[in-house]
Amino acid sequence: MDKDSPCIPLGHIQTYFDLRKSLNLDADWLQQKIQFHVDNPHEIIEHIIGIDQASFYRNAGIDYLPGEDGRFINTRQVVALVDQAVQALRMPYLGLTMGNLMTISHHGMAGVAAVTQTTLRECLEVISRFCDELFPPLSMNGYLEKGEGKFFIREEISLAPYTHFFIELNMVSFYNIMEKLIGSHDYTKHVTFAYPEPAWGNIYRRYFKCPVIFDQPENAIVGCESLAERELPLANRLMAMSAEKSLFENIPTRAMRILPLRLRRMLMRYYGAFPSLENAASELGMSGRTMRRKLAENGTSYQKELDNVRQKLAREYFSRGGESITELALMLGFTDSSAFAKAFRRWTGLSPTEFLAEKEATAKAHRQ
């Protein structure tokens, strides 16, 4: 699956650009809410809720008519929508602003289904599953490690040049939602971002009431492990089930019916012990022959998807500070470090040693 695969429900994307549910049409309120001074707050209000819908979609290559609830768009078109909004508002930090404006109710039935789970762990699991279906260019997940709980966001399909917009929007939004559920900002030890600090880095620190660290292995909200089983104040199993049912009745999805994406997500779970094509096909409910054919129809193959996953895991390993090429080669299922080095050069144009040297040089330049 690539930037041109139509797998994102337009109905879901519309929630990003329709903030009327959470906007009080008052310029002073808006300026206080976004915590940043602007020359003309009324202009921001006009743009956020008044961009001509037909032109907005047409400029992104979307031939949309009101009422087409079953429409799917691709990643390239979503990025084009964001570009229009950022350029019209002249706000490169728009992701932060919009994320801070979003409330639980703004997320609609997805928000209701998430916050009515019994524990914070279950809430994050639901968010992860919804992301897979509603916005596959990103994946969201959580894990517990060494006394810490992490909720992280990964880019699965390139959202460049607006990767930061989507990361900012979701990180701020979920940070605020967690604060509402737990009742305090103190639950967060720090937040991390997997890219260099942008020119508007100071604005991040106005939204996050904790340390903000850039150039890290992942985009993550990091808190105490004990919070995972914290019972949520709005816990209601029946309401959670009803909200999820209503969500998917009103917003059709197709992401998890796209085989390359399903295969890639499955392979990510097999870190270090990847299944054969036949075993992977069996787990996905088909024969090896059928999988080969369906992958070919999508312009890919089992080996290409496996290489994509291995490359992602290799980059993450080095980003986390790992330096043993032999260890990484074994973890990724290569017979020896030489075979891994050849594959890594094919993926990146650099040997693992050259990649590490370049990484260290970049880190040193940032420290100076």
How would you describe the shape? globular
Rg, rounded, reads: 21 Å
Counted up, domains total: 2
* Unreliable sequence segments: 19-27, 40-47
CATH C-level of the largest domain: Alpha Beta
Q: How much strand?
A: 5-15%
Query: What fold name goes in the CATH topology slot of the largest domain?
Result: H-NOX domain
Could you describe the largest sheet, including whether it forms a barrel? 5 strands, mixed
Note the gap between the termini.
40 Å
Counted by DSSP, the helix tally is 18
Helices and strands, in order, run as EHHHHEHHHHEEHEHEEHHHHHHHH
Averaged pLDDT, please? 81
- Gross CATH architecture of the largest domain: Alpha-Beta Complex
- In spatial order, strands of the major sheet run 3-4-7-5-6
Percent of residues in helices? 40-55%
Strand pairing plus helix content: what structural class? alpha+beta
The strand count comes to 7
